[in-house]
Amino acid sequence: MDGARLINASVALGTSPARLVQWCDSVSLCLNKGLGAPMGSLVVGTKEFITRALRVRKVLGGGLHQAGMFAAAGIYALDHIAPRLSLDHTNARAIAQSVSEVHSSAITVDLKGVQTNVVLLHCDNIRVNAKKLCQRLASVTDAESEEMGEQIVVMMLPITETTVRLMMHCDVKKDDIKAVIKKLKYIIQEYDNMMYLEYK
């Protein structure tokens, strides 16, 4: 199993990671991403599998000297960040809810799909596509700065022509969520105000 977000799934489902992977022969667990460690992954499997994995890692030059500091960060993430992942899920839900409440025709979100720390925004591809939305979120116009009274930059990732992915993680604070919501609402209003004929 690719367990890049295994702990998020475990928290969202209210069950243990062990139960989720009980039928898997091997599991990888990423320690950065939602868990916030600077780097590192765990690989779990049978003794024979791990012996082979260590050999392959060495052959491919994947060894790392003085890796103790990264291991310590990984242990800290499992002990201290994993128990608070539900907060990331709550933050993701708050952002998705705020987009949904705007009732936009240009940018929408499927609330049922927001189960963990991932929010997918869908663009109508008439007024805006995913790439343009990300570029607009990462910029600040003079009019926007004056109207909002602050300059907010939000970094998101286009994953298809019409879909933008927003990820919550342990470094995102409560004030950041408010800022993201404020920026999104402002930009969604911009696109909703555009006339269809301008983009035909």
TrEMBL record:
Its cofactor is pyridoxal 5'-phosphate. SUPFAM superfamilies: PLP-dependent transferases. One of its GO terms (cellular component) is cytosol. Residues 1-121 form the Aromatic amino acid beta-eliminating lyase/threonine aldolase domain. Pfam families: Beta_elim_lyase. GO terms for biological process: glycine biosynthetic process; L-threonine catabolic process. Keywords: Lyase, Pyridoxal phosphate. GO terms for molecular function: L-allo-threonine aldolase activity. InterPro entries: ArAA_b-elim_lyase/Thr_aldolase (IPR001597), PyrdxlP-dep_Trfase (IPR015424), PyrdxlP-dep_Trfase_major (IPR015421), PyrdxlP-dep_Trfase_small (IPR015422). Coiled coil: none annotated. It comes from the Eukaryota. Belongs to the threonine aldolase family. This is Aromatic amino acid beta-eliminating lyase/threonine aldolase domain-containing protein. The lineage of its organism: Eukaryota, Metazoa, Ecdysozoa, Arthropoda, Crustacea.
